[in-house]
Specification:
This protein is α/β, with parallel strands linked by helices. Helices cover 16% and strands 40% of the residues. The protein is built from five helices and 17 strands. The strands form two sheets. Strands 1, 2, 3, 4, 5, 6, 7, 9, 10, 14 and 17 form an eleven-stranded mixed sheet that branches. The protein has a six-stranded antiparallel sheet with strand order 13-12-11-8-15-16, with no helix packed on it. The two termini are 34 Å apart.
Length: 282
């Protein structure tokens, strides 16, 4: 790959003193690439702020959460991302922090492929009118605002009632998100190459509520009934509290997240290696 314009998205909390970003910028500039940085992660002495519409590739230094934030910024422009793991779990990232030079060399020689991951579009609506919209790579979650109280959530698919649950919340996940909060809530692990959505109640007070695997072409509606209030979270970020009468509509996004990968058939060995320990903290 001939990298002419590279973006660097660095998490300052994980990239101590921007050491990884500085080293990465040096390696890229040695290969003739122009380098810019996300506005929230600019090393000292750098001034070029990244425009995602004007870069060929985005290098992301951090953990899975950092990569989710970077995906939200880059996905509308079709920019491929290479994740460099500076966190603990690193399920989505491709490269270990001590292999940055090797990764740059591999990308520059074209020894990689681009993997596309399905994303979700969400819209908080009342009477069909959207108030807030966005996209998510992992999941869209309706959850209670008050810790000690349950809420009721109504789940509809393409206008048909699918479930009602007294619960802590409900989520719709992508296959990418199936190894995140969805897994903790009892949802299935889904291969990232499967095009689907997974709706899962969270801590339902029920003997029947289970995950439902849905077509990517479905429209899913989650409507909370919560005297104590409910909030919408997407990819781990609280987006809004629900107002009276509001619901969230979830469907397949028109965008896809694009990841640079070096190895084929990596998913199942990665799955086992990341979840084999019972006593780790993420």
């Amino acid at each position: 790959m001939d990298i002419k314009r590279a973006g660097i998205y660095s998490n300052p909390e994980k990239d101590s003193d921007f050491a990884g970003a500085i080293e990465l910028a040096r390696l890229l500039r040695e290969r003739g690439a122009a380098v810019s940085f996300d506005a929230n992660g600019i090393p000292p002495g750098e001034t070029d702020v990244m425009d995602p519409a004007q870069i060929d590739i985005l290098f992301v230094l951090g953990g899975d959460g950092t990569l989710l934030k970077a995906a939200e910024r880059s996905c509308p422009f079709g920019v491929p991302m290479l994740g460099i793991n500076l966190g603990n779990l690193g399920f989505l990232t491709e490269v270990k922090k001590d292999r940055i030079k090797e990764a740059v060399d591999t990308v520059c020689t074209g020894s990689y492929y681009v993997e596309e991951r399905l994303m979700l579009h969400f819209a908080i609506c009342k009477d069909g009118v959207p108030r807030l919209e966005g996209d998510a790579l992992n999941d869209v979650v309706v959850s209670k605002k008050v810790m000690a109280r349950m809420i009721n959530v109504e789940l509809s698919v393409n206008g048909a009632l699918a479930d009602k649950a007294a619960c802590d919340g409900m989520l719709v996940a992508t296959p990418t998100g199936s190894t995140g909060y969805s897994l903790s809530a009892g949802g299935p692990i889904v291969c990232p190459y499967v095009a689907c959505m997974i709706a899962t109640p969270i801590c339902a007070h029920s003997l029947h509520s289970r995950s439902i695997v849905l077509s990517p072409n479905d429209e899913v509606v989650m409507k909370p009934y919560a005297p104590g209030g409910a909030v919408l979270t997407a990819d781990g970020i609280v987006r809004s509290e629900f107002r009276d009468g509001e619901e969230v509509r979830v469907s397949k996004s028109k965008y896809a997240a694009r990841f640079i990968r070096f190895q084929k058939n990596y998913f199942y060995p990665l799955l086992r290696s990341k979840f084999i320990s019972w006593d780790r903290f993420v």
